[in-house]
């Protein structure tokens, strides 16, 4: 039985390699390395790895598209390519869809939960940026026009939840993935959440 499982895992990994090209980890600062080492590790699900693929969105280069049903985020590149990342999304009660723009970006941001979240969960509180912060290594702040949507694309201190619908609407990524996306994304980039 164990040999069969190992064989299936190996075949799955080999087939994934045929369809997708892995994207190397971005370079990180010494602070990033130190803090990333403090975030709990999770067994990585190869389905939600970071891959260079043919662009399935048809959007302009520089656009971010989030497919909430499939739990993937696409960063559209030139040449009809995209980088695909696995994400955790909002559960049905809290999910947000629409078109926004990245109004600002932050490294290891502080987290101040919105009033609605504090009302639902009185235990949540302001948390300074760092490895224990729910926003993780980076955050992209989504605005509709000049109005903050209060939704973010951000890292996580719960990497085991990538691929699930568990957040209060934000798009969570593995910290190394959100660093990669942060480095690629310009302020005012278009974001489409479907």
How would you portray this structure in words?
- The structure is a single chain.
- The chain has 194 residues and is of the alpha+beta class.
- The chain has a single domain, classed as L,D-transpeptidase catalytic domain-like (Beta Barrel), CATH 2.40.440.10.
- 22% of the residues lie in helices and 30% in strands.
- The chain is built from four helices and twelve strands.
- It has helices spanning 2-19, 30-38, 115-120, 175-184; strands spanning 21-22, 51-54, 64-67, 72-77, 81-86, 89-90, 98-107, 138-144, 147-154, 165-167, 171-172, 190-193.
- It has a ten-stranded mixed β-sheet, with helices on both faces. A two-stranded parallel sheet has the order 6-10.
- The active site is at 154 (proton donor/acceptor), 170 (nucleophile).
- GO terms for molecular function: glycosyltransferase activity; peptidoglycan L,D-transpeptidase activity.
- Residues 1-21 form the signal peptide.
CATH architecture: Beta Barrel
What order do the helices and strands follow? HEHEEEEEEHEEEEHE
Q: Please state the structural category.
A: alpha+beta
Average pLDDT figure: 89
* Amino-to-carboxy terminus distance: 40 Å
CATH class: Mainly Beta
Which regions are unreliable across 5 or more consecutive residues at pLDDT < 50? 3-18
Number of domains: 1
Q: Strand percentage, roughly?
A: 25-35%
Active site: 154 (proton donor/acceptor), 170 (nucleophile)
Protein name: L,D-transpeptidase-like protein
Domain L,D-TPase catalytic: 62-194
GO cellular component, one term: extracellular region
